[in-house]
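Q: Focus on the shape:
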Amino acid sequence: MATHFHQKPNMFVSHVQIKVSDLARSIRFYKNIIGFDILEQTGNTAAFTADGKTSILSIEQVENAQPLQRGRTGLYHFAILLPSRKDLGNFVQHISQLDVPIGAGDHHVSEAIYLYDPDGNGIEVYADRPEELWIWNGNTVYMTTEPVNFRSLLEIADGTWNGLPEGTVMGHIHLSVSDLRKSEAFYTKALGFEAVATYGSRALFISTGKYHHHIGLNTWESLGGSPAPENSVGLKSFTLVLNDSEQAEKIKNNLKEMGHVTEIFEGAPKFGGRQAFSTVDPSGIRIVFTLDEQ
């Protein structure tokens, strides 16, 4: 089951859409390396699932795909949250047998493994530490980056990795943005997120419901950058779940007042029969809003 941080009334990332250059190659990667199953597939798309019922990630092959370019806005990484530390240990055990390059970080609130898909899209696979161990100073949560204790993780692994376990969710998304202050104003004032942590002057972490972050924002490589072309691999959109129609109308009004256009998003699934709407953030990143958990 998802944690309460990834349930209503919190606003959270439920789904990420990624553009790829070779559908078959990406399907092999996301099934064999990451551990997804396919929920639905068409000629140029695939929707992945961990529980056989809902999709938290989908990919789309774009024609004449352009590779990722440095300095562009868009995806820094999307982050798959496993239900337990033992699951993360089993994932590490699994991936260590596959000769896949990885990075890692102990962020105090969580332990994370980092890798890239065949197109260079960034991926984090992580497990949260119990929230009672997180350190809050007022409205700011303590996060850091230290080496991961792989020995400790592998000691609790039991060799039972059989793909992503049920209860896996999209934990957060981390975005490369062009202007941190404009992004902060957009996500906090228009959408209602709260800033909970910073890394220097170039990264900001925001959440609802006192999670350590539902969205990360940074300008480490994208300061002043522009969006990638439509036929570039990378992020197509990410989906935020809203609590109710009242919140949806409030956000629509906030967006209109701040000069952002909202529209019906034809590229998104129809969620429980209720059509999603979407907008574009100040860095050109497409956000889909829905009332339905996928």
User: Anything to note?
Assistant: The radius of gyration is 18 Å. The chain has one domain: 4-290. Residues 198 and 204 are 4 Å apart (CA to CA).
